Amino acid sequence: MHCWKTINVKKQYGFDRLFMISALFGIAVFMASYIGLAIAYATPLSDQYFLYFILTLLAIYPLHKILHFLPMIGCHKSLKLMIRKHMKVCPAILLHINEPVSKFRFLLSLATPFLVLNTAIVALSLAMPEFSHYFAMLLAYHCALCLTDIIYLRNLARSPKYAFIEETETGFEILVPPVIS
Protein backbone atom coordinates (compact mmCIF):
# COMPACT_ATOMS: atom_id res chain seq x y z
CA MET A 1 0.00 0.00 0.00
CA HIS A 2 1.09 3.53 -0.63
CA CYS A 3 0.22 6.75 1.17
CA TRP A 4 -2.43 8.76 -0.67
CA LYS A 5 -2.49 11.66 1.81
CA THR A 6 -1.49 12.53 5.38
CA ILE A 7 -3.89 14.50 7.56
CA ASN A 8 -2.81 16.25 10.76
CA VAL A 9 -5.47 18.71 11.86
CA LYS A 10 -3.59 19.77 14.99
CA LYS A 11 -0.53 20.69 12.93
CA GLN A 12 -2.60 22.29 10.16
CA TYR A 13 -4.68 24.50 12.49
CA GLY A 14 -2.63 24.59 15.71
CA PHE A 15 -3.90 23.92 19.22
CA ASP A 16 -4.88 27.53 19.99
CA ARG A 17 -6.80 27.99 16.76
CA LEU A 18 -8.60 24.65 17.16
CA PHE A 19 -9.49 25.54 20.74
CA MET A 20 -10.88 28.92 19.66
CA ILE A 21 -12.90 27.47 16.76
CA SER A 22 -14.18 24.74 19.04
CA ALA A 23 -15.23 27.24 21.70
CA LEU A 24 -17.01 29.41 19.13
CA PHE A 25 -18.73 26.34 17.69
CA GLY A 26 -19.88 25.34 21.19
CA ILE A 27 -21.24 28.83 21.87
CA ALA A 28 -23.12 28.81 18.56
CA VAL A 29 -24.63 25.38 19.32
CA PHE A 30 -25.64 26.54 22.80
CA MET A 31 -27.34 29.66 21.48
CA ALA A 32 -29.18 27.80 18.74
CA SER A 33 -30.31 24.91 20.95
CA TYR A 34 -31.26 27.07 23.94
CA ILE A 35 -33.24 29.55 21.86
CA GLY A 36 -34.88 26.72 19.89
CA LEU A 37 -35.93 24.89 23.04
CA ALA A 38 -37.10 28.12 24.71
CA ILE A 39 -39.31 28.88 21.72
CA ALA A 40 -40.65 25.32 21.47
CA TYR A 41 -41.37 24.90 25.20
CA ALA A 42 -42.71 27.60 27.50
CA THR A 43 -41.99 25.41 30.54
CA PRO A 44 -40.36 27.20 33.48
CA LEU A 45 -36.75 26.11 33.94
CA SER A 46 -35.60 24.27 37.05
CA ASP A 47 -32.21 24.40 38.73
CA GLN A 48 -32.87 21.17 40.57
CA TYR A 49 -30.32 18.34 40.09
CA PHE A 50 -27.40 20.72 39.50
CA LEU A 51 -24.98 18.17 40.99
CA TYR A 52 -26.13 15.59 38.41
CA PHE A 53 -25.53 18.16 35.69
CA ILE A 54 -21.93 18.71 36.89
CA LEU A 55 -21.33 14.95 37.11
CA THR A 56 -22.73 14.46 33.61
CA LEU A 57 -20.58 17.31 32.32
CA LEU A 58 -17.50 15.60 33.77
CA ALA A 59 -18.57 12.21 32.36
CA ILE A 60 -19.07 13.38 28.76
CA TYR A 61 -15.36 13.37 27.84
CA PRO A 62 -14.67 9.78 29.01
CA LEU A 63 -17.95 8.62 27.40
CA HIS A 64 -16.90 10.33 24.18
CA LYS A 65 -13.59 8.42 24.19
CA ILE A 66 -15.28 5.10 25.05
CA LEU A 67 -17.66 5.57 22.12
CA HIS A 68 -14.65 6.13 19.83
CA PHE A 69 -13.33 2.78 21.02
CA LEU A 70 -16.53 0.71 20.46
CA PRO A 71 -16.31 0.45 16.63
CA MET A 72 -12.66 -0.61 17.01
CA ILE A 73 -13.41 -3.59 19.27
CA GLY A 74 -12.40 -6.04 16.54
CA CYS A 75 -8.87 -4.63 16.48
CA HIS A 76 -8.37 -4.23 20.23
CA LYS A 77 -4.87 -5.73 20.05
CA SER A 78 -3.69 -2.85 17.87
CA LEU A 79 -5.12 -0.10 20.11
CA LYS A 80 -3.03 1.71 22.69
CA LEU A 81 -4.60 3.87 25.39
CA MET A 82 -2.57 6.81 26.71
CA ILE A 83 -3.37 9.53 29.22
CA ARG A 84 -1.54 12.86 28.92
CA LYS A 85 -1.95 16.20 30.62
CA HIS A 86 -2.65 19.36 28.62
CA MET A 87 -1.58 22.61 30.23
CA LYS A 88 -0.33 20.57 33.23
CA VAL A 89 -3.87 20.23 34.56
CA CYS A 90 -6.40 18.73 32.12
CA PRO A 91 -6.07 15.00 31.48
CA ALA A 92 -6.43 13.97 27.83
CA ILE A 93 -7.24 10.40 26.85
CA LEU A 94 -5.60 9.33 23.59
CA LEU A 95 -6.32 6.20 21.58
CA HIS A 96 -3.62 5.17 19.12
CA ILE A 97 -4.07 2.55 16.40
CA ASN A 98 -0.94 0.55 15.66
CA GLU A 99 -2.12 -1.01 12.39
CA PRO A 100 -4.18 0.20 9.41
CA VAL A 101 -7.96 -0.05 9.68
CA SER A 102 -10.56 0.23 6.95
CA LYS A 103 -11.86 3.66 6.05
CA PHE A 104 -15.43 2.66 6.95
CA ARG A 105 -14.46 1.46 10.43
CA PHE A 106 -12.42 4.58 11.08
CA LEU A 107 -15.23 6.89 9.89
CA LEU A 108 -17.65 4.96 12.09
CA SER A 109 -15.27 5.37 15.03
CA LEU A 110 -15.12 9.13 14.45
CA ALA A 111 -18.88 9.56 14.03
CA THR A 112 -20.15 7.28 16.82
CA PRO A 113 -19.69 9.68 19.77
CA PHE A 114 -21.28 12.56 17.86
CA LEU A 115 -24.29 10.52 16.79
CA VAL A 116 -24.89 8.60 20.04
CA LEU A 117 -24.31 11.28 22.67
CA ASN A 118 -25.92 14.13 20.76
CA THR A 119 -28.98 12.01 19.98
CA ALA A 120 -29.29 11.08 23.66
CA ILE A 121 -28.88 14.69 24.80
CA VAL A 122 -31.45 16.00 22.30
CA ALA A 123 -33.92 13.23 23.19
CA LEU A 124 -33.54 13.97 26.91
CA SER A 125 -33.99 17.70 26.31
CA LEU A 126 -37.24 17.01 24.48
CA ALA A 127 -38.41 14.59 27.17
CA MET A 128 -37.57 16.95 30.07
CA PRO A 129 -38.00 20.54 28.85
CA GLU A 130 -37.70 21.96 32.39
CA PHE A 131 -33.98 21.05 32.22
CA SER A 132 -33.44 22.22 28.65
CA HIS A 133 -30.83 24.76 29.76
CA TYR A 134 -28.71 21.92 31.21
CA PHE A 135 -29.09 19.87 28.06
CA ALA A 136 -28.26 22.87 25.84
CA MET A 137 -24.99 23.30 27.76
CA LEU A 138 -24.20 19.57 27.54
CA LEU A 139 -24.93 19.56 23.81
CA ALA A 140 -22.74 22.63 23.26
CA TYR A 141 -19.86 21.12 25.25
CA HIS A 142 -20.06 17.83 23.40
CA CYS A 143 -20.30 19.48 19.99
CA ALA A 144 -17.20 21.52 20.85
CA LEU A 145 -15.43 18.25 21.76
CA CYS A 146 -16.49 16.75 18.43
CA LEU A 147 -15.14 19.54 16.24
CA THR A 148 -11.81 17.86 15.46
CA ASP A 149 -13.67 14.62 14.70
CA ILE A 150 -15.92 16.51 12.28
CA ILE A 151 -12.90 18.06 10.56
CA TYR A 152 -11.27 14.62 10.20
CA LEU A 153 -14.57 13.19 8.90
CA ARG A 154 -14.77 15.92 6.28
CA ASN A 155 -11.19 15.25 5.13
CA LEU A 156 -11.51 11.45 5.13
CA ALA A 157 -14.85 11.43 3.31
CA ARG A 158 -13.05 12.59 0.16
CA SER A 159 -10.54 9.73 0.25
CA PRO A 160 -10.76 6.64 -1.99
CA LYS A 161 -13.47 4.15 -1.08
CA TYR A 162 -11.26 1.14 -0.28
CA ALA A 163 -8.59 3.07 1.61
CA PHE A 164 -7.10 2.16 4.96
CA ILE A 165 -6.29 4.63 7.71
CA GLU A 166 -3.12 4.38 9.77
CA GLU A 167 -2.09 6.63 12.62
CA THR A 168 1.55 7.75 12.64
CA GLU A 169 3.52 10.44 14.41
CA THR A 170 2.88 12.80 11.50
CA GLY A 171 -0.91 12.33 11.61
CA PHE A 172 -3.38 10.00 9.94
CA GLU A 173 -2.16 8.45 6.72
CA ILE A 174 -4.65 7.38 4.08
CA LEU A 175 -3.27 4.21 2.53
CA VAL A 176 -4.45 2.98 -0.85
CA PRO A 177 -3.90 -0.59 -2.07
CA PRO A 178 -1.86 -0.87 -5.27
CA VAL A 179 -3.79 -1.01 -8.51
CA ILE A 180 -3.57 -4.49 -10.09
CA SER A 181 -3.68 -4.37 -13.88
TrEMBL record:
Domain of life: Bacteria
Keyword Transmembrane on entry: yes
InterPro entries: DUF3267
Transmembrane segments: 21-43, 49-75, 106-128, 134-153
Record flagged with keyword Transmembrane: yes
Protein's name in the database: DUF3267 domain-containing protein
Species in which this protein is naturally found: Planococcus antarcticus DSM 14505
Keywords: Membrane, Transmembrane, Transmembrane helix
